[in-house]
Design brief:
Elements lengths: L7 H12 L14 H12 L2 H5 L22 E4 L2 E4 L3 H6 L3 H10 L8 H5 L3 H14 L20 E3 L4
Helix pairs in contact: 2-7
The structure holds heme C.
Heme C binds next to helix 3, strand 2, helix 4 and helix 5.
Length: 163
């Protein structure tokens, strides 16, 4: 059906929606693409929220999606020093897709990040994850920067035994 065949009022409404895109809420947000849905699925089954989303596991997975992957101030201390699960919403917002893929491939990532699992993903799966996080948009504060071995962390940490 072309615009000419739509009832006049509907045509006006569509026009208004096109112009009012920045005024979120007036018109329904665009439905996520199949690629974005795939990214959401991979993030769910990949356990990314368990570390990168504060309170996700404690909520039984019911935490609102808008708060996913915003990074955590809980530290993980071991022979590598102390690591913090990054704010992926900020990271992805600041990188193009090729830059993000290069970052993932570059490795290594400090434990307990399952960096090797991420690197083993098919390129189209990594791209779907990137697109999904990009679709979520930037949110939250950066996680604390990693600390080298021997530097005492200030906040709460999970301590791993030395091998
Ligand atoms: C067991 C906890 C854990 C899980 C599960 C986890 N991560 Fe991480 N992730 C971390 C930690 C900790 C870091 C910081 C690593 C470092 O400092 O080198 C990190 C870092 C990253 C980075 C690098 C960020 C940067 O700033 O360079 C990416 C990308 C990433 N994770 C993506 C994911 C994705 C996607 C998933 C799910 C498939 C996932 N992570 C699952 C703990 C986790």
């Amino acid at each position: 059906m072309t615009m000419n065949h739509l009832p006049h009022s509907m045509g006006l409404l569509l026009g208004a929606c096109a112009m009012a895109l920045p005024l979120a809420g007036l018109c329904a947000p665009p439905a996520p693409s199949a690629q974005i849905e795939r990214g959401r699925y991979l993030v769910k089954i990949g356990g990314c929220n368990d570390c990168h989303t504060p309170g996700y596991a404690a909520s039984g997975g019911k935490l609102a999606e808008r708060d996913w992957l915003t990074g955590d101030a809980l530290g993980y201390s071991g022979p590598w020093g102390t690591s913090y699960a990054s704010n992926l919403r900020q990271q992805v917002a600041g990188l193009t897709e090729p830059q993000w893929l290069a970052r993932v491939r570059q490795g290594p990532m400090r434990p307990p990040m399952p960096g090797l699992s991420l690197q083993a993903m098919a390129p189209q799966d990594l791209k779907a994850i990137y697109r999904y996080i990009r679709w979520l948009g930037p949110r939250g504060e950066p996680a604390p920067p990693p600390l080298p071995p021997g530097v005492a962390p200030r906040g709460p940490v999970v301590v791993f035994p030395a091998p």
